[in-house]
Amino acid sequence: MMKKLILLSLLLVAGFTLAACGEKEDIGDRTEINFWNISPVGSESYSGMRRIIRDFNESQDAYFVRSTGINFWDYWDRVNVAIASGNAPDVALHTIDNVVLRASNGALYNITELIEADIAAGRETIAVENYLENQLDVAAYDGNLYALPFSATTRVLYYNLDLFEEAGLSETDVPTTWSELHTVAKQLDDVSGNTINVLGFDPSFGEGTYKQFLWQSGLDYFDEDFNVTLDTPEHLEILEWMYDFNSEYSRSALDAFGEANEMLGINPFAAGNLGMMIASDGLYETLRPLGDSMRYGVAPIPLPDENGVRVNWGSGFSIEMYDNGDEARKQGAWEFMKYLMTYEVQQDMAEVLGWLMSSIPAMTDYAEGNPILEAFIEELNYAVDKVYVPYAPNWHAVDWDQYFEEGLRGAMTAEEVLQAAISNYIQKRENYEAAN
Amino acid sequence: MAKKKKHTNSLQQMRKQERRLGYIFASPWLLGLVIFGAFPILASFYLSFTSYNMVGVPRFIGTTNYQALFFNDNLFWKSLWNTLYHVFLSVPLGLIVGIMLALLLNSKIRGIGIYRTLFYLPNVVSIVAMSLLWLWLFQPNFGLINQVLSPFYNLLNMEPLGWYRDSNISKLTLVLMGLWTAGGSMIIYLAQMQDIPKDYYEAAQIDGANGLQQIIKITLPLMTPSIFFNFIMGIIVGFQVFTVAYIMTGGGPGRSTYYFGYYLFDKMIQDNNMGQASAMAWVLLVVTLVITLLALTLNKYVFYLGEQD
Q: I want to staple B143 with a disulfide (CB 3.0 to 4.6 A). Which of A221, A430, A436, B139 is the partner?
C-alpha cells in the first residue's frame, strides 16, 4: 500500500512538473520574438531580466518577447550553432569584436537602415551619439551598423590602499608611468625566502596584456592590412619589460603565488595579496561584497615614460538582430531592441546584470557618487576594442598565449616568442587566403 | 497439398509481419543512427572540402584544407605527434595497471567488494572534477605529490618535478592521471578471470606450478580476449584525448599537451574554420583506423576459450 502511495505521489509530481514545463503563455495574435540572453533560471539576474521583459510585453499589443536564458559557458556554442543552422533567435547578445564575421556573411539585419527608416517615418529611434565611437566602429561593416553595443567595459589599475599604507605609501603615490609602477610595486613586495606573501604588481596578472602595453606605446600586433608588425625592437623591448618586471623572483615562486590564489578561486587582489592589478569592472563586482573591510581605489593604467598613449583595452557585448526573413518578427525585434537601449532600461540592466552598459548618458548618471564606477566611465573614453582579424580571430588569446607563457616560463626568450608568434600568424594567413 | 500451401503462406505472412514489427521497434534507433550519426559523418566529409566559417554558406575548395594541414601547419603535426605519444604511452600502461588491479582484487578476502568499488569509483567521477583534483595533487609547489616526494628530492638532491608545468613530462603526467580510471578495464578483466575454470588451477597446483606461473600460464592467456578488447578500445579512446588537457594545461606548456582533438576544437570554436576542423576529423579517423587495423592483426594471439571446444 505504502509503495503504491509513493509511486502515485511521484507520478503526480512528475505530471505537474511536466505540465508546468509545457505551460505556454497565451499571447493571442501578437508576434512572438525570441530573445536569447545570459540570465538562465537560477542565476542572480534571472528575475530582473524577466521583469524587464515582462514590462515590455505588458506595454505591447503587437509583439511578445519570449526569453531564453542560457548559462554563460554554454551560450556561445548554442548561439553560434543556432546561427549556423539558420535557427537563430530574433534578438540575442553576442561579442561585439566579431560582429564583422556575422555581418559580412549576411546573418544580421542592417541597423543603420532601421534607424534611417525610423527617422524618415518620424518615429523615436536609437541615438547613436549615446554610444562610444569605438564600439560603434567595431559593430559596423561596410559603413553600416549591424549591431548595437549592449555593454561596455574597460580596464583600470586597482590599488590596495591598506597595502600602500603598510608600505608607507599613500594615494598620492599611485603610479602614473611604467617606471613609477615598478618603483611602487617593489616597495609593496613582501617576500620571505622563496615565498611571495605580497606582490606589488605583475604585468601578466589579472587582465594585464601585451596588447594593452603595445597600444599604450603606439604599437600593435598588425597594421591596417592585417600584416604582422611584431618584429620591431620596440615590440621586443615591451615584451622584455613584462618578462623582467619581477625577474628577481624565481618563476616557481611567482607560479606558486599565482596558482595558490587561482586554484582556491580567489582573486589575489581581493585576497589582499596583490598591491596593484589591472582589471575590469568585474573585479569591482567581486570586491563589492567585501564592503569596507578592504580599502582600494582605481586609476588609469600607468603609461610608458615617454610618448605614452592613454588607451585601454575595451570590450563588451553586442545586441544583434538575426535575419530570419520574417518582416513582422524583424519589426518586433527592432522595437524590443530600442526598448532595451532606452535610458531607464539601460540603468535597470546595469543593476540587474552588474555590468556597465553601453549608453554613456545612462551610465554617467548611474555611476554618479560612486568613485570607482565614475573612474570606469571616464576611462571608457580611452577604450579600444580588439580588431577582428579574419585569418586569426583569436590572435590575442589562443594564438598568442601559448608563446607568451613560454616566455614567462623562461623556455623561450622574448625574441623567440615574437618570432614563433609571427610564424604562426603568417602560416594562418597563408592557409586562410588559400581557402578564401 | 492445398493445406500445406496455405500453411506456408500464413508462415510467410507471419514472418513478414514480424519483420515489419522488428523494423518498427528498431526504427527509433535506426532514425537516431541516420540523423545523429550518418548525416553528421557525411556532412563533415563534405565540409572538409569546403571553406566554411559557420555563419555563411560552405564553399567547395577541393583538397585545400588537407593540403594546408599536411604542408603548411606546424601545429597539425605537433598535435598529431602529441596524440600518438599519448596513445603509445597510455594504452600499454593502462593495460598493465588494469590487469594488476584485477589480479589483486581477484581474491577472496573480507571486504573485497568494497575494494573493487573503491577502485571503480573514479570512473563515475566527472572528468572535469577529476582534472581539477589532480591539478591540486600535481601542483609543483604545494601539491600533495611533491610534498610526499620531497624526502626523495632531498635525498637525490634534485629539484621537485614540475609535472604538468614541465613540457618534458607534461604528457606523462596526464597519462599517469588517466591511470586513476584503470578500474574501468579492471572490471572487465575481473569478469573474465572469474570465468576461468578452477580445475585448470587445481591441475597446475598438482603439477607444482607456483602462483606466478599460474598467472603467466593460465590467467593471462585466458584473459587475452578482454586484454585485446581493452587494447583496441584504449587506442580509440586515446586518440580522442581532449578534456584533461583543456582543463589542466590549456594545451601547454609549450603546446606539449596540445592534442589533436584540442587543435580540432580550436580550429572550429576559436578560428570558426569548420572546413579545416572537418578535414582534421577525417584525418583522425583514418589515423585511428589504420592503427586499429594494425592492432587487429594481433587477434591471432588471442585465445578464445569457447572456440577450442
A: B139
Amino acid at B231: F
Q: What is the pLDDT of residues A268-286, one digit of tens each?
A: 898 889 999 999 999 998 8
> Does the beta carbon of A411 lie under 8 angstroms from any beta carbon of chain B?
yes
How close A158 comes to chain B (CA, Å)? 27
Give the gap in angstroms from C-alpha B102 to the nearest C-alpha of chain A.
35
User: How far does CA A356 lie from the centroid of its chain?
Assistant: 10
pLDDT digits (tens, 9 = 90+) for A42-55: 999 999 999 999 99
Strand A91-95 vs strand A317-321: parallel, antiparallel, or unpaired? antiparallel
The architecture of the domain spanning A156-313+388-435 is 3-Layer(aba) Sandwich (3.40)
Structural domain total, chain B: 1
Between A83, A260, A401, which is nearest B142 by CB? A260
The CA R_g of chain B, rounded to the nearest whole Å, is: 26
pLDDT at A267: 84
DSSP letter assigned to residue A394: T
Between chains, do A406 and B75 touch, taking CB under 8 Å as contact? no
What is the pTM assigned to this prediction? 0.86
Task: Please give the ipTM for the structure prediction.
Answer: 0.84
**Nearest to residue B253, comparing CAs of B141, B174, B137?**
B174
- Nearest Cα of chain B lies from the Cα of A296 at a distance, in angstroms, of 30
Contacts of A234 (CB under 8 A, 6+ apart): A217, A219
Report yes or no: A255 at the B interface, CB cutoff 8 Å. Answer: yes
Q: Rounded CA gap, A189 and A198, in Å?
A: 5
Q: Could you tell me if residue B284 is inside a domain?
A: yes
The secondary structure element, H or E, covering residue A93 is strand A91-95
SS3 content of chain A, % helix, strand, coil (to 5): 50, 15, 35
Q: Which CATH number applies to A29-153+315-385: 3.40.190.10, 3.30.300.70, 2.60.40.10, 3.40.50.300?
A: 3.40.190.10
Please judge whether B140 and A252 are an interchain contact, meaning their C-beta atoms are less than 8 angstroms apart. yes
Range of the domain at B181: 73-308
**Interface residue A433 vs chain B (CB under 8 A):** no
What is the torsional sign of CA A385, A390, A393, A396?
A: negative
Q: Do A394 and B271 touch (CB under 8 A)?
A: yes
Contact A409 B165 (CB under 8 A): yes
From chain B, the residues in CB contact with A430 under 8 A are 68, 72
Q: Which residues pair with A277 in a beta bridge?
A: A158
